[in-house]
Design a protein that fits this description.
single chain, mainly alpha, Growth Hormone, Chain: A, globular
Length: 496
């Protein structure tokens, strides 16, 4: 996770502690401007209570939040990386060609409303209970995917099972995400940065595990002598790879459950949670401190709805840019990219598909890391918007590769080099990570976003609006993948 560009001013230091979307960078030194303004003795006492946690939080707490960050994005990465296995179970069915688009759409459409509900109800909920039950549910749902590798229902039943399971994981993950971010915000920038680092790293780790398991399953399948009588009952490489992959994911979620339970016993956690509880001396002060624990700020002068609508218009270039980045990404990755096969017949399709996920995630991670280099930062909203729109060019580039459609095209692939395809995919990931991160950092920055006019009270609202635009882009991209496929195959994308 790239480190945030630090400054000396307190206003710039507070760059939006609240980040409902996992892949956005965090301010280096989160400061609560609403508490800075008041100099009353009671308010100063509360500010002292919210001072940085003991040194213990910089060590064990930081690594615990890194693990929790990994768990937040593990469901999505696990489901999307296991696409080759899902497709192998739909072989010979008309559902196969549209599966990836339906999977992305089901996952993202489920995520958006539940994330909104989780954020709206975070103030009244127990974060520790949300983390506990969310991890438990995710472990169970992932375990059912593991069991599915030994069960062979009809393609239609399997199709419905995967979409329903994925939608449930997305919904549960929304509550896990808000709870983890809320707890991390109590510990300040160190824990929050650890969460973001875990979310960025899990994609690379999951893809790496998938490549290794795919390689192992392909090798074991090639070592088994061909026995025609037993061929029908033998497990495929895709099933073996998926069983290992989902099994490891289930174990990791259970370990995360134990790690979180251990964190709750640490003195640093108990002390900080006690300090974060709102005082009953005045209603306004109680709302103020509880708002810090949930990442929701309140403005007595303007309603929340009016503030959000104002920020949507005020930061329109940033909001549109970050949404469009993910709309383009999800429109082709993985629905189109997973159908691109190697031009080398000796390369196993399962291994090539798994490796292409790894390349993209490495690129995405590198793009976020670039944001730690001050000379390479772009704060201009217009420039980021142009870069976001320019990513549209990746769509025809991918379509020029060795795409395997149900109806073969009259012209063969223009890009016949696997290396060139992987380079395009790498830059696709780099641009996704860099532009999205810069939009999320710049939109709530009072130092670099002149639209805010130095109003620190607008920072958290700007971050929240940009975050929901990011999720909206993911949802729009999932739906747009159907249109991209229809334009290429000249067919009904919902059926073929």
């Amino acid at each position: 996770m790239p480190r945030q560009h630090s400054t000396g001013s307190s206003e710039h230091a507070y760059e939006a502690v609240y980040r409902p979307i996992p892949q956005a960078p965090v301010a280096a030194i989160p400061v609560r401007p609403s508490l800075e303004i008041s100099t009353d003795s009671e308010d100063i006492d509360v500010l002292d209570d919210l001072s940085p946690p003991p040194a213990e939080a910089g060590g064990r707490i930081r690594w615990i939040h890194f693990v929790l960050g990994c768990a937040v994005l593990l469901p999505w990465n696990a489901v999307i990386t296991a696409t080759p296995y899902f497709l192998s179970r739909l072989e010979g069915s008309p559902l196969k060609s549209t599966f990836s688009s339906y999977l992305s759409a089901a996952f993202m459409i489920s995520n958006l409303p539940f994330l909104a509900h989780a954020t709206a109800t975070a103030k009244q909920a127990s974060n520790s209970r949300r983390v506990f039950f969310s991890l438990l549910c995710l472990a169970f749902l992932t375990a059912t995917f593991t069991v599915s590798t030994w069960v062979h229902p009809s393609p239609g039943v399997f199709f419905a099972f995967v979409l329903f399971n994925g939608a449930l994981q997305s919904a549960v993950g929304s509550y896990l995400q808000t709870a983890v971010v809320a707890v991390a915000s109590l510990f300040g920038s160190t824990a929050m940065a650890a969460v973001m680092s875990g979310q960025a790293a899990v994609g690379v780790a999951v893809s790496g595990v998938q490549v290794l398991s795919a390689a192992a399953s392909v090798r074991s399948a090639s070592d088994i002598p061909e026995v025609p009588i037993q061929a029908a009952s033998s497990r495929t490489p895709e099933e073996t790879s998926a069983a290992l992959f989902f099994g490891l994911s289930t174990i990791f979620l259970l370990i995360t459950q134990g790690v979180h339970a251990w964190m709750m016993t640490l003195p640093a956690y108990k002390t900080l949670v006690a300090r974060s509880r709102p005082r009953a001396t005045t209603d306004s002060l109680a709302e103020e401190t509880q708002g810090l624990t949930t990442g929701i700020s309140h403005n007595s002068k303007t309603s929340g709805k009016d503030q959000i609508l104002r920020m949507v218009k005020l930061n329109l270039p940033y909001n549109f840019a970050v949404g469009y980045v993910f709309a383009i990404t999800l429109s082709v990755f993985p629905p189109i990219t997973v159908s691109i096969q190697s031009t080398n017949p000796a390369t196993h399709p399962l291994l090539f598909s798994a490796f292409h996920f790894l390349v993209y995630n490495i690129g995405d991670f590198l793009g976020r890391s670039v944001c730690s280099i001050p000379r390479l930062l772009i704060w201009s909203a217009n420039k980021l918007l142009v870069l976001s729109l320019a990513r549209t060019l990746f769509i025809p580039l991918f379509l020029l590769c060795n795409v395997q459609w149900a109806h073969p095209a009259a012209l063969g692939p223009v890009i016949t080099s696997d290396v060139l395809f992987l380079l395009v995919l790498l830059f696709f990931g780099v641009s996704n990570g860099y532009i999205s991160s810069m939009c999320m950092v710049a939109a709530p920055s009072v130092a670099h976003n002149p639209r805010l006019k130095g109003r620190a009270e607008d920072v958290d609202i700007a971050a929240t609006v940009a975050s929901f635009c990011l999720v909206g882009g993911l949802t729009l991209g999932s739906v747009a993948s159907f249109a991209v496929r229809a334009a290429v195959c000249d067919c009904n994308p919902f059926r073929e």
